[in-house]
Design a protein that fits this description.
Layout lengths: L3 H14 L4 H6 L7 E2 L5 E5 L4 H6 L6 H12 L8 E4 L13 H18 L3 E5 H8 L5 H4 L4 E3 L2 E6 L2 H5 L2 H11 L2 H6 L3
Parallel strand pairs: 2-3, 2-4, 4-6
Antiparallel strand pairs: 1-3, 5-6
Bound molecules: uracil.
């Protein structure tokens, strides 16, 4: 039986072998599959890699990622405690919005990642991440309201990039983040 890390590496390899979103793959520098603790209780799901992530092949390492690190620290967590990924695993050119067919193409691989990690809590960051799990929902109404998705708790939050330069959203995401310890407390 392979380890969780090996199973995750196999899913990343499958994305390449199966030629998922070949147009995005052509313009991207790296596949940004996700990283963190394969035994994590919490998986954070963003939208798509940006420039820094594409250059380095790691999720959330630009400005939004630094803010995410601060938010994690605020609830006593580090990146080593959690797992971080995005819906799209390749950067869309010029950071354009992910297209619905691109999200659809990557979802089976995201579900496979979640099956391996089996977290107690899924935190979706922003509209794109959230609507893939709860269709039609807007983050402006759904943020900070835990839901159940396939037996797991799902907490939609604003995307840190949206909250970075907006004072009001910044406080909202800090307040919503504070719910995370309660969401996992009874699940461990
Ligand atoms: N935004 C995302 O949604 N994902 C990243 O990896 C970086 C920024």
């Amino acid at each position: 039986m392979s380890t969780k890390q090996q199973q995750l590496e196999q899913i990343a390899a499958d994305i390449v072998t199966n030629n998922v979103c070949p147009d995005l793959a052509k313009t991207a520098t790296h596949l940004v599959f996700g990283e963190g603790n394969p035994d994590a209780d919490i998986v954070f799901i963003g939208e798509a890699p940006g420039r820094q992530e594409d250059l380095h092949g790691r999720p959330f390492i630009g400005a939004a990622g630094k803010f995410l690190d601060e938010l994690l620290e605020g609830v006593g967590l580090t990146r080593e405690d959690v797992y971080i990924t995005s819906i799209l695993k390749y950067r869309p050119p010029n950071n354009r919005d992910p297209r619905s067919e691109e999200k659809d193409a990557f979802m089976p691989y995201l579900f496979a990642q979640l099956d391996v990690i089996a977290p107690a809590l899924i935190v979706t960051l922003g509209n794109h991440g959230t609507s893939c799990f709860v269709p039609g929902v807007r983050i402006s109404t759904a943020h900070g309201q835990p839901q159940t998705w396939q037996g797991r708790t799902l907490l939609p939050l604003y995307h840190p990039a949206a909250a970075l330069y907006n004072r009001k959203l910044r406080q909202t995401i800090i307040d919503d983040f504070a719910m995370i310890p309660t969401c996992i407390k009874d699940k461990k």
